[in-house]
Amino acid sequence: MKNFNGDVLFLDRSDINTDEIIPAKYLTENSKEALRPYLLEDLSLDGFDPGRDISGKSVVLTRSNFGCGSSREHAPWAFEANGINMVIASGFARIFRQNMFNCGMMAVELPRDTVEIIFNKFNGQKTSITTDMEKMAFTFNVPTGEALEIPFSISQYDLSLVKAGGWVEYADKNY
Amino acid sequence: MGKTVAEKIFDAHHVDNPSGDIHVISLDAVFCHEITTPIAINDLVARGKDRVFDPSKIKAVIDHVSPAKDSKTAMQGKILRDWAARHKIKDFFDIGRNGVCHAIFPEQGFVRPGFTIIMGDSHTCTHGAFGAFAAGVGTTDLEVGILKGVCAFKKPQSMKVEIFGRMPDGVYAKDVILALIGKIGVDGATNRVMEFCGSVVDAMTMDQRMTLCNMAVEAGATSGICPPDMVTVEYLWPFIQDQFGTKEGALEEYSRFLPDGDAVYTDTITMDVSGLAPMATFGYRPDQVKPVSDMEGTPVDQVYIGSCTNGRLEDLEIAASILKGKKIAPYVRGIVSPATPGIYSKALETGIIKTFMDAGFCVTNPTCGACLGMSNGVLAQGEVCAATTNRNFNGRMGKGGMVHLVSPATAAASAIEGKICNSPLYRLPE
Ligand code: SF4
User: How far does A85 lie from chain B, in Å, by closest CA?
Assistant: First the structure.
């Protein structure tokens, strides 16, 4: 199972599409590692600088309809190549969400209000997250010592993909 | 309880229900192109699973960058080409016979009502125009499709989209779908199938239905679906006549996939097109839509007519009827890419290509190229393009470029004026 703990990258916008996550011109790459420098290169978000803001982050927190647009699995791979294995959002586009679990990564949906609370409390501070897969809960921590526990749910099936390390192995075994 | 088209197709393809509302279904076809498939092939090879479930159900095309523009795209083509040869995939379309995937596969008769189809391409929803469940997937789903002929989906819920009224002259399927996306937003149909119906859809040709279904994903939909009818049967007739003695017989068979009268939908959207104007996008999201008249005068550097949305024969015919005898503005670059060799050669026969050339358009070979900013018409920083494509995302046709999505008629008229404008064909009904 992959690592779902670490520092949070806040992307305070809805409808971030896969062209923004990894532009089409990099789709000619045939390895995941080659995508690493280009993650979120075309993201339009005030104050965001991919060169400065991505390094050291392990989790993304964002708003609704994340990952809309092209079906490219290069989007989760570009995250994975940067050590980001989990995106938490108030909503996902279907293909992106499925691609994440198919790769053994996590795309966790939380209620809109909960995401709002997390943004209000922690955006702008160095925030880290720990994920308890047994309890199905996240804990957000900031250096002031403040902590916030948020329960989440994913389906048994998604969980089995995360545990199996993805859909290829699961499907070849079962079908 | 009644069933939607998607539910009937799912029931007919059930393989497994591993948990909750997740359903594994069997696939009738897996479509492949050279951007998303090579990486799937490499991964299957690395896992020691270089197999295909059924070479006759896999269809492959090199379409996104064709001819190859550099060593990297040449290698993507080579990986797909070698793989197709090694697994004896006979429906493989290489340069000279290739076209944009969502145009060439239907044209070859590979799509049937009731089919289940996946492809590593978000606009796979186009094929729902035939009453199929066709969905874009990522590389891992594609790998499993290639290997096992199955795919897992949440049992799809459907949204009913009823389109009625009298279409004004000069208003097309593209304007209808842009207006619809403008109304429900880019996630207005997420995780749902858009099932289209109503007198306007009934009256549409297959080319128009494909335009409609093509952009369903821009509202987040898993697939767009038009229930099969006689229009579908007529289109498919050359491919199915040996199987069915009569067209009525074919229609009866396909009627298995019509929605029940008491089918359950998450919601119903009704749209009266009688007052609809030609539409254009103005921002970086396909739901940022307004009437062309509100954007009149916006200068354009390039006009692009092509893609899986609007690169079919009807689209070219409409644009050519406006361009006939005219010249495009001297500082505008006009590019037209007929979506398949079949469309290209028909357009040659009927003189449409000559009309484009006389007007000052560059005619390219069938390819996606400019649509995704990879070749054949990439924009420079700060440039503006009126395009008949389906995505206006920031950087889509080139970093720093702006794309306004429009119909072929609006594109042609805008090329002549050098500015976005309504086509001379547009007339509100009296
Ligand atoms: S024409 Fe454009 S949208 Fe259609 S398949 Fe090609 S790149 Fe994708």
Answer: 16
Residue A28 has pLDDT above 90, yes or no: no
Whether the CB of B188 is below 8 Å from some CB of chain A: the reply is no
CB contact under 8 A, A28 and B72: yes
Please tell me if residue B145 touches chain A, with a CB cutoff of 8 Å: no
Instruction: Give the chain B residue nearest A103 (alpha carbons).
Output: B140
Tell me the CATH class for B5-270: alpha beta
Which CATH superfamily is A6-174 part of? Aconitase, domain 4 (3.20.19.10)
pTM, two decimal places:
0.91
Cis peptide bond N-terminal to B238, omega within 30 = no
DSSP A22: S
Handedness of CA B364, B355, B359, B278 (dihedral sign): negative
| B281/B59 Cα distance (integer angstroms) | 33
Structure tokens at B426: 């547009």
Of the CA atoms within 13 Å of residue B141, those in its CB half-sphere come to 30
- Give A143 to chain B, closest Cα distance, Å: 36
Domain boundaries, chain B: 5-270, 281-417
- Domain range B281-417, CATH class: alpha beta
pLDDT tens for A96-105 read: 999 999 999 9
* Phi, psi torsion values for B167, nearest 5 degrees: -65, 125
Higher pLDDT: A28 or A99? It is A99
* Residue ranges in chain B modelled with pLDDT below 50: none
Smallest CA–CA distance from B192 into chain A, residue: A94
CB spacing of B18 vs A29 below 8 angstroms: no
pLDDT tens profile B220-275 = 999 999 999 999 999 999 999 999 999 999 999 999 999 999 999 999 999 999 99
Return the residue whose CA atom lies nearest to atom 5 of ligand 1: B308
β-pairing verdict for A147-151 and A137-141: antiparallel
- Residue B389 in contact with ligand 1 by CB distance below 6 A: yes
Whether residue B334 contacts residue B303, with contact meaning beta carbons closer than 8 Å, is answered with: yes
pLDDT tens by residue, B275-332: 999 999 999 999 999 999 999 999 999 999 999 999 999 999 999 999 999 999 999 9
Domain spans in chain A, listed from the N-terminal domain onward? 6-174
Q: Considering only alpha carbons, which residue of chain B is nearest residue A156?
A: B19
The chain-wide mean pLDDT, for chain B, equals: 96
- The CB of B30 under 6 Å from ligand 1? The reply is no
Q: Determine how many CB atoms are found less than 10 A away from the CB of residue B331.
A: 9
